[in-house]
Specification:
- The protein has 848 residues and is α+β, with helices and mostly antiparallel strands.
- It folds into 3 domains: 199 residues, no CATH class; 448 residues, no CATH class; 97 residues.
- A hairpin with a 5-residue loop joins β2 and β3.
- 40% of the residues are buried.
- The structure holds zinc ion.
Length: 848
């Protein structure tokens, strides 16, 4: 205690004496240069600055480039929109050109001699009539982003230094966080360098201001240099556009979401409602107003105008334009003529695509494209009104190139790598064109002999892709159920399908339509918007629709061509969806038949592969790529069939809606059995992967430098086959699938768990376990047995139901009995012993 007092007084003494010294110094200075009493004004503070007038007035120092901001009294406590997008970035840091990062509401508040920038929480609604609304700030947080000292206050105007607002990550987080469990060798950005980070451009307009800031992250040494897209990982630049936007002043009325139609939404909870479902979610849509409100169909006062960026390859411009304008057909049913307008950005244009006032169809050819098409929009978080949108298209997805690294990944599940971190909440990345590239390459193989058809295929693909991405910018999310529109027969019927959309919506990820009989081929993709698309636009855009008319419109959701289910429900992942009709890479209302047709088409093409890719003077890389693409198609078809086992048809119709079925109806036993038989024959049977052996000697990559470092270059045929089989098995043995089979017995499922598991065991063992087992089947049998033992023993065991574990024990014992024979060649006998050892160990270890 004593020591502390002593220390404190010493410190005070020190502080005092240095203050004294300062005073003395100052006095001395004053003597030399007598101070002229000059009042600081805004004008004096911004001397030598450029004045940038617009929504807010900014001043930029012509010598140092530093920025000052002027805020007027009337601008205080008003709501503004903040929006950001990546101007340019690197995928390693989850940022890439054109990535939208969501929009927020902010206010500027005055606190004594400071201005505060506050991000406002817009997730909750309080009825202003309800006294509870007085409590509306309770237990929720607005965020104080920044406080800046007022340098000058003059005639209701405040001048502040604005560098910190933009040179730091004030508005949004740009550098990704380090994730728990992240590999120590993972790519990392250095620290934000204050000396290298610069505001590169300021564009000021009456309604918005855009800042382009180049953030530089520096470090003196790196372990992981990232991809070749990064010149030197010690200094990595990420350029971000920050836009401050005035609140739109119009009579826009929010439209509330409905679960039967798929729009992106702005989610709001109604905190003063007593309803069980207290959602006040607004759909995101453009503000379209009829020029002639009385007319049934009128042009809008302001159409949605798209600009084809001047970077667009010339040969694609017409298809792109057609793809955008196709949506006008849907808008006409909602009462608007020429709602969409397309223009081409002149080569001499002064503006660039980062300018939020322009909706631009953009092109890039990136080293590591994160997607092939991406249609983000940004909105007013208060109302859901879409204010701007862009579409990014990747050139590589319209070439014949498969990424080198992808030639190693053979599983149908190895989708494009998604940027997994985005501070905006509406990162609706669209992976459609990645799938479309595979579809196109596959389609090209099928039509290779018919040269004119290749152009048709590519144009249809572009048209559908554009319609899909434009659909996103109109507010529509995916509809992965819409591929149920037609039967395989109808899709294969040239006369019937000509001129029609192949799916209810272009917002699906359907597979390419290919007929086994090439003479019957019609459309490969949809070339017009589908019936669901028209209906969804009617829901979102019909102006001033009455409640009665809205109910009538929504009551149509039970019509088969208006089926809807989005990514949240789709069955790509076994842990998510339950309705096998909601899926990607599928087509037709009989996905099992269509999948079997696809596999047979693949197997036919596989036979002629060597001949087809016989190009003297060329390497064999294209042949290897072709093998890989065909294998993926096969795997995809197997996956689609597997989803019927334990599947439940979901109907989101409201109670009493005409045509509605029960919300949950289990897939019939006969359909589940048909899927099981299809999987058994085409994915598991000893001859399921009977590719002619003479192709394997040729599956060679073209050498490039030392780029085989990922491993030996030989085509790993067994691994390829097994990965396709494992995709199927991992769904069939998923804890949700097994539990659902038992659960759904209570409401109509008659394909019981015991029967299914017995069928599965038979499909995997019965054909050959008593004799020779070929090497593909050995792999399948071992892998399957291991998966069973893991249900008993591994970490994931706790997530399995008791019923599932009982059947696993039952099946392991059955396999043990089946494998108790010593027939077959040496490897087959060794394999059977291996199986039995696996089972014995698992049973010994199992404690229940
Ligand atoms: Zn999409």
């Amino acid at each position: 205690m004593r020591l502390n007092v002593l220390l404190l007084s010493t410190l005070c003494l020190f502080a005092f004496s240095s203050l004294e010294a300062q005073k003395k110094k100052k006095k001395k200075g004053e003597e030399e240069k007598p101070k002229t009493e000059e009042k600081t004004t805004i004008a004096s503070k911004v001397k030598g600055h450029d004045k940038l007038e617009g929504l807010f007035t900014f001043y930029r120092d012509t010598t140092s480039g530093s920025i000052m901001m002027e805020v007027s009294k009337e601008q205080l406590d008003k709501e503004y929109i903040y929006f950001s997008q990546i101007a340019d970035g690197v995928l390693e840091a989850y940022s890439f050109r054109g990535a939208y990062r969501g929009s927020d509401i902010f206010k500027i508040r005055k606190f004594y001699n400071e201005l505060e920038f506050v991000k406002v929480n817009t997730s909750f609604y309080y009825d202003p009539e309800n006294p509870l609304s007085r409590s509306q700030e309770a237990n929720m947080s607005n965020s104080l982003l920044a406080s800046e000292k007022i340098e000058v206050e003059e005639n209701g105007k405040y001048l502040i230094k604005a560098d910190n607002l933009f040179l730091k990550e004030t508005w949004s987080q740009i550098k990704p966080p380090s994730f728990p469990g992240q590999s120590p060798t993972a790519f990392k950005l250095g620290s934000l360098s204050s000396e290298k980070t610069k505001v590169r451009a300021i564009r000021n307009y009456p309604q918005n201001i855009d800042f382009k800031v180049e953030y530089v992250y520096s470090t003196s040494s790196v372990l992981n240099g990232g991809s070749n897209a990064i010149a030197d990982a010690r200094n990595v630049s990420i350029s971000v556009f920050h836009s401050l936007v005035a609140m739109p002043e119009n009579d826009y009325k929010p439209r509330f979401d409905d679960p039967r139609v798929g729009y992106f939404t702005t989610q709001v909870d109604d905190q003063t409602s007593k309803e069980a479902v207290a959602y006040r979610d607004m759909i995101n849509r453009w503000h379209l107003v009829k020029k002639d409100p009385e007319a049934a169909v009128s042009e809008p006062i302001e159409p949605i105008t798209w600009w084809i960026e001047n970077t667009t390859p010339l040969e694609w411009r017409e298809s792109i334009k057609q793809g955008v304008l196709e949506w006008n057909k849907a808008f006409e049913k909602a009462g608007f003529k020429n709602a969409m307008v397309v223009k081409v950005q002149p080569d001499t244009a002064e503006w660039d695509a980062g300018d939020i006032r322009y909706n631009v169809l953009r092109w890039t050819s990136s080293p590591n494209p994160p997607f092939g098409g991406y249609g983000p929009s940004f909105k007013n978080p208060r109302t859901g009104q879409i204010i701007g949108a862009d579409i990014m298209l990747e050139f590589v997805h319209h070439t014949n190139r498969v990424r080198y690294s992808k030639l190693y990944s053979l599983s149908a599940n190895s989708d494009e790598e998604l940027p997994a971190w985005n501070p905006g909440d509406e990162a609706n990345y669209c992976m459609y064109s990645g799938l479309m590239l595979e579809n196109n390459l596959f389609g090209q193989m099928a039509v290779a002999a018919e040269t004119d058809e290749l152009d048709v295929l590519q144009n249809e693909a572009m048209l559908e892709l554009i319609m899909h991405e434009v659909g996103h910018t109109l507010g529509l999310n995916h509809n992965m159920k819409s591929s149920q529109l037609y039967s395989p027969e109808q899709l294969y019927n040239k006369e019937f399908i000509q001129g029609k959309a192949l799916t209810g919506s272009v917002m699906d990820y359907a597979t390419i339509n290919l007929t086994k009989d090439r003479s019957k081929q019609s459309h490969y993709y949809s070339t017009v918007v589908g019936p669901y698309d028209v209906w969804a636009i009617q829901f979102g855009y019909t102006p001033d629709i009455s409640d009665v008319d809205m109910d009538k419109l929504l009551a149509r959701s039970t019509e088969p061509e208006l089926m809807f289910g989005n990514d949240a429900d789709d069955m790509r992942s076994s842990s998510r969806g339950i309705d096998p009709r909601i899926n990607t890479g599928d087509l037709s209302n009989d996905q099992i038949t269509y999948s079997i047709d696809r596999i047979e088409l693949v197997d036919n093409l596989m036979k002629d592969l060597r001949e087809k890719y016989n190009d003297p003077g060329e390497s064999y890389q294209e042949l290897r790529q072709a093998y890989y693409i065909l294998s993926r198609q096969r795997a995809q078809a197997g996956e689609v069939m597997s989803r019927f086992i334990g599947g439940i048809y979901v109907d989101r119709a409201m109670q009493g809606q005409p045509g509605a079925t029960k919300p949950y109806t289990p897939v019939s036993e006969s359909e589940q059995k048909r899927a099981m038989n299809g999987i058994s024959k085409y994915m598991f049977a000893p001859n399921a992967f009977n590719t002619s052996n003479d192709i394997y000697n040729y599956l060679a990559l073209q050498r490039r430098g030392y780029n085989f470092y990922r491993g030996p270059e030989d085509p790993k045929i067994h691994e390829s086959v097994l990965s396709a089989q494992k995709d199927v098995l991992s769904h069939l043995l998923h804890e949700n699938t097994l539990q659902r089979l038992v659960d759904s017995e209570l409401y109509g499922n008659s394909y019981q768990l015991g029967e299914f598991m017995t069928d599965l065991n038979s499909a995997i063992f019965d054909a050959d376990i008593s004799g020779n087992v070929n090497t593909f089947r050995q792999n399948l049998q071992i892998e399957y047995t291991k998966m069973l033992t893991e249900i008993l023993l591994k970490d994931k065991s706790s997530s399995y139901s008791n019923h599932a574990k009982s059947m696993v024990l039952y099946n392991l014992n059955a396999i043990d009995r089946k494998a108790t024979n010593s027939s077959g060649n040496t490897l087959s006998r060794a394999h059977k012993s291996h199986l039995r050892a696996l089972i014995k160990n698992a049973l010994d270890e199992y404690k229940g």
